[in-house]
Design goal:
Elements (H helix, E strand, L loop, with lengths): L4 E3 L2 E3 L4 E6 L4 E7 L3 H19 L3 H17 L1 H12 L3 H21 L6 E3 L6 E9 L2 E5 L7 H13 L2 E5 L5 H14 L6 E3 L5 H10 L3 E7 L2 H12 L4 E5 L4 E5 L5 H13 L9 E7 L3 H13 L19 H16 L3 E4 L14 E4 L6 H4 L6 E7 L2 H8 L4 E2 L1 E5 L3 H10 L4 E4 L14 E2 L2 E2 L12 E9 L3
Helix pairs in contact: 1-7, 2-4, 2-5, 2-6, 3-4, 3-6, 4-5, 7-8, 9-10
Bound molecules: succinic acid.
């Protein structure tokens, strides 16, 4: 377990440190270097100094470094998963799945980085030729979230490094240890000093200001809340940085009358309870056709009742704690608001005594659109279930949100499937599945969920700039 900042290939201890807690019991796990302006500037300078050499290496060379990193991550799966569970709280099996998911982005981009093609374009003149080449954008700042403290780093860093960018990562203050463990393995994989830097900090706005205002940083990639994304975007305006924003969601999960209900309930469990409900693509609003509403609620409640809460490190735990007390307070407020306006808690409905930051897996029925839970991202283990009658009505309600990240629906009729898939205003749609994440697929949202795509063949685009070469033939 590393606890110092990683800058220019070296571990740097700072005068100030901050405490990282295990959310299961709120006990201190480690004290970590608290980077400020000076350390962040040093990391940016190191990344800028490393850029000319790293960006002019062959793609094959960069690919080999990435593959070594990926292999080291896979070889250290158990250790990395343990660190992740300790600082984040998710069950060990989910932590292992995240480490593998994170490694899959490195493997994917180690390959895709070799396929950064350009274009030749027929000219309107006999006297010149038109060529377009793609080049790395430059130094990238990556600001990453606590809910996937490992995979959200590799999903940003791997494409950046693959095309020749250098990177400064600012991990979330709740979960810096996974980032530092990845840096340790990157060091072992042989990335040159300055190519990959990590600046943990307890004061994100201080480090965030330096990263966003530095003219040496040419791109910011951020995953987090829409509110913080907007603030970062404003900060980046002065230097007109390229931006990728993976922001909040408010995912609808629609169950049509002809859906396979058992499959829909399985999908609902996966789309809701992964990471205790703390993912941006978690189902946030369940819309169920009136003809199957009671049956769906009962089946969902039965499965929810059986979920085992506890320490993520203990075998059998299915739902861990919420990340911090603010996260718990938010879930408590949303459920209280819904109940005060007429929602019924079929299961759960309050904080749990398993530990200081646990909330009972909850199913709320009789939920309506005037409740806060309709409009806000819950980020906790709560299913709010709405009743609908018509396709038009449910599409309107599903789209009645300013964000548009993920959506899900279950149904059998293929005409309906096409209609609904096209009508949903979201960047990703799960059709008869509650699991949509994959390295090969483009992850990202529309509207106030942000822009840019991560993973997939499109995931390189945000780290590249196009250069047009006009070759005069001198006739
Ligand atoms: C997220 O919650 O932002 C990431 C979820 C995923 O990649 O599956």
């Amino acid at each position: 377990m590393r606890t110092s900042a990683y800058i220019n290939g070296q571990w740097l201890e700072t005068d100030q440190t901050f405490s990282v807690l295990n959310p299961y019991n709120r006990r201190e796990l480690a004290r970590v270097s608290d980077c400020g302006v000076e350390e962040t500037e040093a990391a940016i300078d190191a990344a800028a100094a490393a850029f000319p050499s790293w960006s002019t290496q062959t793609a094959a060379h960069r690919s080999r470094r990435l593959r070594s990193w990926c292999e080291l991550i896979r070889n250290n799966l158990d250790e990395l998963a343990t660190i992740l569970t300790q600082e984040q709280g998710k069950p060990l099996a989910e932590a292992k799945a995240e480490i593998k998911y994170g490694a899959s982005f490195i493997e994917w981009f180690a390959e895709e980085g070799k396929r950064v093609y350009g274009d030749t374009i027929p000219s309107s003149s006999k006297d010149n030729r038109i060529v377009v080449i793609n080049q790395p954008v430059g130094v990238v700042a990556a600001i990453t979230p606590w809910n996937f403290p490992s995979a959200m780093i590799t999903r940003k860093v791997a494409p950046a490094l693959a095309v020749g960018c250098t990177v400064v990562v600012k991990p979330a203050e709740d979960t810096p240890l996974s980032a530092l463990a990845l840096a340790d393995l990157a060091h072992q994989a042989g990335f040159p000093p300055g190519v990959f830097n990590v600046v943990p900090c307890a004061r994100p706005e201080v480090v965030g200001r330096v990263l966003t205002q530095s003219p040496k940083v040419r791109k910011l990639s951020f995953t987090g809340s829409t509110a913080v994304g907007k603030w970062l975007m404003e900060q980046c305006a002065g230097t007109l940085k390229r931006l990728s924003m993976e922001l909040g969601g408010n995912a609808p999960f629609i169950v049509f009358a002809d859906a396979d209900l058992d499959a829909a309930v399985d999908g609902a469990m996966a789309a809701k309870y992964r990471n205790g409900g703390q993912t941006c693509i978690c189902a946030n609003r369940f819309f169920v056709h009136a003809s199957v509403y009671d049956e769906f609620v009962e089946k969902l409640a039965t499965k929810t009742r059986k979920l085992k809460l506890g320490d993520g490190q203990k075998a059998g735990t299915e739902v861990g704690p919420l990340i911090n007390s603010a996260g718990l307070d938010k879930v408590i407020r949303l459920v209280e608001d819904a109940r005060s306006k007429g929602a019924k808690a079929v299961v759960g409905g309050g904080a749990s005594d398993v530990g200081p930051q646990f909330y009972q897996p909850t199913v709320l029925s009789d939920v309506s659109v005037d409740m806060d839970v309709f409009h806000e991202e819950i980020f906790g283990p709560v299913c709010s279930v709405y009743k609908f009658e018509t396709e038009t009505e449910v599409i309107e309600q599903a789209n009645a949100t300013r964000v548009g990240l993920a959506a899900y629906f279950y149904g059998q009729n293929y005409s309906l499937i096409w209609r609904v898939a096209e009508a949903l205003e979201f960047g990703m749609v799960g059709i008869n599945t509650g699991r949509i994440s994959a390295a090969q697929a483009p992850f990202g949202g529309i509207k106030e969920s942000g822009f840019g795509r991560e993973g997939s063949k499109y995931g390189l685009d945000d780290f590249l700039v196009k250069k047009y070469l006009c070759w005069g033939l001198g006739h």
